Amino acid sequence: MEPVAPGMKKEETQPTGSDGDGEQQPNKSQSKQADRQSEPAEPSHADEHPERTVPVQTKGDSAGSDPALLEKKVEEMTLEEKPAELTLEAIAASIKEGKAKNIIVMTGAGISTAAGIPDFRSPGTGLYDQLGSYNLPSPTSVFELDYFMEHPEPFFHLTKQLWPASLKPTVAHYFIKLLHDKGLLLRCFTQNIDTLDHVAGLPADKIVEAHGTFATSHCLKCQEQYSQDWVKEKVHSDELPVCEKENCGGVVKPDVVFFGERLPSRFFSMVDEDLPICDLLIVMGTSLKVQPFASIVNRVTCQKLYINLEDPRHQMDFLSLMMGLSSEPDNSKEVFLQDTCDDGCQKLANLLGWRDQLRKMFKDEHKILEDKLAKATSSAIKGKVSKIQASSGKVPVCDRW
Is 103 in contact with 184 (CB distance < 8 Å)? Predict the structure, then answer.
């Protein structure tokens, strides 16, 4: 899940849709492919055949004096095909043929909804709507530093939703891991702060967390650092994380990016290092409404695959338009797959011949995580029983039956 608006720029103050959900618009580009390939080019000169382009005669061009040859040459020029529309099959072929071997993946909240984490903008179910009881000045106030300093409770209520006890990565997370295992993943740039990329097994150097992370936290007063486990325990116990350093008592904030805070320096350095050599960009589960993260797509000229329930290419903000960045899709280099992230990744995996590998990885890794959770739960229960025994000298007995 992504904090919809953390970072250097806030574009919206009200939920307008969903990164993972939205009104579906059917993709009609493929059904028109054959017709478009045979359409004539636009004329550059008007004559008695306005649909044709008249060739410029050069010295020694015999066609200039032979009407039959001239007619043939004109026909050849007017029948020139427009660039074919890119397809998912073509994307898969590029990967299989080794043409795409420095793949960048960009992810947003939609990649984690299948894990049970709500997205931010969906009406009624999104995280913003769940904060209604706090009477926020605006839904995004939860990510404003000044508001957090005075009222940290709404943020930690939201944080609890982002940390379910049995959190497990999705099929899409494991597809990215499979790209890495095959030596094809250059980098994964994510807006999400749920750390599921790490849980899926991606090495830290392959992940760029553009909007920060829950992995570490700091006291806003004395800058004392705290671990994710420490904050997580406090949050799930409905306790406010307060610094334990003597004479401090400051609120401990996870290292996620709020409005007014600069994005991590690693985001900018990796953008400059990776984009020039990227040969395929896969964008999943994001509406591309937040800058500067969204601007990445306009800085690469390679093939692009978008997997989302709504087309994110039309979400260009005012800043991007002022910068002269186009919001018009280039169907000769881009594919929009209107689908969930999990289903879209499975379709691509099927075309690549990776279906069985992806399924096995998903099942095996989930089994490992479930075993770890069961063991941790058992240890926690035993620890509580031991504390009760130590304090009362008695063994607690269930009297339900």
Answer: yes
The pTM assigned to this predicted structure is 0.69
Q: Which two tokens stand for residue 127?
A: 């995280």
Beta partners for residue 207, in sequence order:
188
- For residue range 269-299, list pLDDT tens digits in order: 999 999 999 999 999 999 898 888 888 998 9
Instruction: Give me the catalytic one of 157, 180, 198, 211.
Output: 211
Q: Are 194 and 214 in contact (CB under 8 A)?
A: yes
The SS3 call for residue 186 is strand
Query: Where are the strands (E) in 108-219, listed by range?
Result: 185-190, 207-209, 212-219
Sheet of 303-308, strand order: 207-209, 185-190, 103-107, 280-284, 303-308, 334-338
Per the annotation, the verdict on 211 as an active-site residue is yes
Q: Which two tokens stand for residue 113?
A: 């909804």
152: nearest Cα among 13, 252, 256, 263: 252
| Size of the chain, expressed as the number of residues it contains | 401
Classify 224 as helix, strand or coil.
coil
* Dihedral-angle region of residue 356 (phi above 0 means left; psi in -120 to 50 means alpha; beta otherwise): alpha
**Cβ neighbour number for residue 217 with a 10 Å cutoff:** 24
For residues 104 and 187, the answer to whether their CB atoms sit within 8 Å is yes
Count the alpha carbons within 13 Å of 292 in the hemisphere toward its beta carbon. Answer: 13
